[in-house]
Design goal:
elongated, two-stranded antiparallel ribbon, mainly alpha, 218 residues
């Protein structure tokens, strides 16, 4: 506040302005420390947070079922229960209005600490979203890596089983070939032995009969 004083012994009045120092403003570090002590609501909680009601809100009344000791009568007028429900609805609307009004007005008309708390809430929300996104990407990467590992192991098992099947088939075909070869050799040997016996029989017959009636000897 500015005050004016005139020094004594001066013929012409000289106006002197005495300036008082402005009130000390809180430092930014103090504001940050004060805002840091305030709890920041979680980004997963409803925003703005639902404050407790100053006046207890009554429960909703069913007009068709009056509270005892009142009873149902033949009169169908339910003015009092409807009035109570309307008052309850007005209290809930007033509570919601103050809830959102206090939330957005804190940034424009609140103290420095409240503004810093408001900004801190959105910074923490952005950080939480970044952490969630990073965790989601890591989880997706782990799932894809696990899926690739399962696919590689299954492919390796299929290749190994196919190799085993090919080896088993090759062994079976080799045994089949060897068995056929052995059977053909035995058949050829049997035919040669039969031919030898026939020739031996014909030679024995020629000793007693010089005519080769079977025409086997040429």
């Amino acid at each position: 506040m500015a005050t004016f004083s005139q020094p004594p012994g001066v013929p012409s009045p000289i106006m002197q302005v005495v300036r008082q120092p402005p009130p000390p403003q809180p430092r930014r570090c103090q504001v940050h420390s004060e805002a840091a002590r305030m709890p920041v609501p979680s980004v997963y909680d409803p925003y703005p947070p639902d404050p407790p009601a100053d006046v207890p809100i009554p429960k909703r009344v069913n007009p068709l079922r009056p509270q005892p000791p009142e009873r149902m009568t033949c009169v169908t007028e339910t003015g009092d229960p409807h009035y109570q429900n309307q008052q309850r609805l007005a209290m809930l609307e007033r509570k919601q209005f103050h809830r959102f009004h206090n939330a957005w007005s804190r940034y424009y008309y609140g103290s420095v600490a409240e503004k810093e708390l408001h900004n801190r809430y959105f910074r923490e929300g952005l950080k939480q979203q970044m952490r969630d996104s990073d965790e989601k990407n890591r989880r997706v990467f782990r799932e894809k890596a696990q899926e690739s590992s399962v696919a590689f192991s299954r492919d390796r098992q299929d290749i190994e089983s196919e190799q085993v099947q090919r080896a088993s088939k090759h062994q079976f075909l080799t045994q089949y070939r060897d068995a056929n070869k052995m059977m053909m050799e035995e058949k050829a040997q049997r035919l040669r032995a039969e031919r030898q016996r026939e020739l031996q029989f014909d030679r024995e017959q020629l000793k007693y009969n010089p005519i080769n009636w079977s025409c086997s000897l040429k």
